[in-house]
Design a protein that fits this description.
The chain is mostly helical. It contains four helices and two strands. A two-stranded antiparallel sheet has the order 1-2.
Length: 111
């Protein structure tokens, strides 16, 4: 089992490798079980800085670092810094897809 210092060094080198460690997988599973595999944002149990648009509660499959991993590597496996989210909420929090980019019309007129 790696120490916290070893995990922090790994994050500094390549954050993607951190997500393949046993320590991450173990804490991820622990957090999902703690949250009963429910998306805490959909269920209104976690208030995020991004407004909620998903009206149908989702099943959690992602574990999100509340404080960003790159800025707070010491909190990488702290369960108090982790929250279970569904795909849509995780993408919204990470600001990927789901309305973050504005579509530009091909022409000024739309028929």
């Amino acid at each position: 089992m790696r120490s916290l210092d070893e995990l922090i060094a790994l994050i500094g080198q390549d954050p993607e490798k951190f997500y393949k460690t046993r320590e991450w997988r173990d804490v991820r599973n622990e957090v999902l079980k703690r949250d009963h595999y429910e998306c805490l944002r959909c269920h209104g149990k976690w208030i995020s800085p991004i407004p909620l648009k998903n009206l149908r509660p989702g099943k959690a499959r992602y574990v999100h670092h509340i404080q960003p991993l790159k800025e707070y590597p010491k909190l990488c496996i702290d369960p108090n810094n982790l929250v279970s989210l569904c795909f849509a909420c995780h993408e919204a929090i990470e600001r990927r897809g789901f309305g973050t980019t504005k579509k530009i019309p091909l022409t000024p007129e739309r028929w």
